[in-house]
Amino acid sequence: MAKKILKRAGIELAIFLGVIVLLTIVHRILLAAERGKIIPNGQLVEVNGHSMHVYIEGDRENAPLLVFMSGGGTSSPVYDFKPLYSLLSDDYKVAVVEKIGYGYSELTDVPRDIDTILSETRAALAAVGESSPYILIPHSMSGLESLRWAQIYPDEVAGIIGIDMAIPSVYIDDEIVPPFLLTVLAQMGIQRFFPVSDLSLTKDEYKQAKLLFYRNVENKTLRNEVGSVLDNAKAVEDSGIPDIPVCLLVSDGQELNEKWVSCQEEFAVQNNAEIEYFDCGHYIHQHEPERIAELCREFISALR
């Protein structure tokens, strides 16, 4: 009886491993076939030997450039932010900088310390002919980069509009562990079985967003970034709070950790920042883009 059970278990394990191998091979074949179908809608520039994608829309005139900076692991920032920047580009010039490992930018194994990430973003903007001052609009993890930018290059940052942005205290004292199981599943192509929100995209944009989702989920660059986030948070924390105008747009925090909202409120007090609350999840620019666009206009008008 025991031998039969062990034999059956061995067969089931072999079938399970066979399915994993088969899914991984099929995913790799599809990725290779899809590579030529991924067509950037902005400009690809070379930064430190790697390709980065920058999307520009609208006219600048005398207003600061609005620089959109994506949350950690967002597979296609240029499409993720579209519901919001499309409401602003009639009045302002906007830029979406896709970091290495994100969107149409190159996937490669490079250091993800905060100063390297910041230098790449600044270089990408310079490569497409843009110059400061900027109004930074970071979502989630890129809040660290925006604060670092204001710490090191305060003359380049006119203000920060944080879309549920991360601040150092939400990471300090937390153990950040890259999700190994999710990485394994992504290598198998499990993301192909999940729906992709259309985000009010055109048919062609939606196709591109899906291809980028299939390619970018849990890639090696993003895993490096997650592995570096605690050190990055400490570097920003140790450098103090920059003296620039900040507006925090804060979600209900339910999709994040329990101290998310309280950390935002503490930061607002320390930095004399404006704070606006949203009764929705972490991607508030997709839930309430109209309200955020209006708050952006009010913030920019006050700066002038």
What does this 3D model show about the protein?
The chain is an alpha/beta fold and 304 residues long. It has two domains: 1-37; 41-303, 3-Layer(aba) Sandwich (Rossmann fold). The chain has helices spanning 2-34, 77-80, 82-88, 114-127, 142-152, 180-188, 203-216, 220-238, 260-271, 284-287, 289-303, and strands at residues 43-47, 50-57, 65-69, 94-98, 134-138, 157-163, 246-250, 274-277. Strands 1-2-4-3-5-6-7-8 form an eight-stranded mixed beta sheet, sandwiched between helices. A hairpin with a 2-residue loop joins β1 and β2 (50-57). The radius of gyration is 21 Å and the shape is globular.
> In CATH's first tier, which class of the largest domain applies?
Alpha Beta
Q: Strands of the largest sheet, in order across it?
A: 1-2-4-3-5-6-7-8
How far apart are the termini? 81 Å
- Count of individual domains: 2
Could you estimate the helical fraction of the residues in percent? 40-55%
Query: Can you tell me the overall shape?
Result: globular
**CATH architecture field of the largest domain:** 3-Layer(aba) Sandwich
Structural class, from helix and strand content? Answer: alpha/beta
Low-pLDDT residue intervals, each spanning 5 or more residues: none
Q: What is the number of helices? A: 11
Tell me about the biggest sheet? 8 strands, mixed
Number of strands: 8
Oligomer: single chain
Order of helices and strands: HEEEHHEHEHEHHHEHEHH
Instruction: Calculate the mean pLDDT score and round it.
Output: 90
CATH superfamily of the largest domain: Alpha/Beta hydrolase fold, catalytic domain
Q: From the 3D structure, determine the CATH topology of the largest domain.
A: Rossmann fold
